[in-house]
Design brief:
Elements (H helix, E strand, L loop, with lengths): L13 H4 L2 E6 L5 E5 L11 H11 L7 E5 L12 H6 L4
Parallel strand pairs: 2-3
Antiparallel strand pairs: 1-2
Length: 91
């Protein structure tokens, strides 16, 4: 589901960008997601986590979704998959 959430400024999914740090699916089918953004000054800092929660909550069996933003460790291009780097011309 997270493959379909894109950073509006970068034409690559947040998953491929390496913005998702952790996903925990609990026994009660609640989902906790820890993620970051490319920069603390991201103009989409409110909307991207909301989109993440929205798409995950649509998955069958999922109850509640909690998305937490963290800045530790800071995001770098090293977090990106090779496919994302290729898409952005970094390889």
């Amino acid at each position: 589901a997270l493959q379909g959430v894109f950073d509006p400024e970068i034409p690559v999914s947040i998953y491929e960008l390496g913005l998702i740090y952790d996903i925990k699916i609990k026994e009660d089918n609640n989902v906790d997601i820890i993620m970051t953004l490319t920069t603390p000054n991201c103009p989409e800092a409110q909307t991207i986590p909301e989109k993440v929660a929205d798409v995950v909550s649509l998955l069958k069996g999922v109850n509640e979704v909690k998305v937490e933003i963290t800045w530790d460790p800071p995001w770098t291009q090293d977090n990106m998959t090779d496919a994302a780097k290729l898409e952005l011309g970094l390889m």
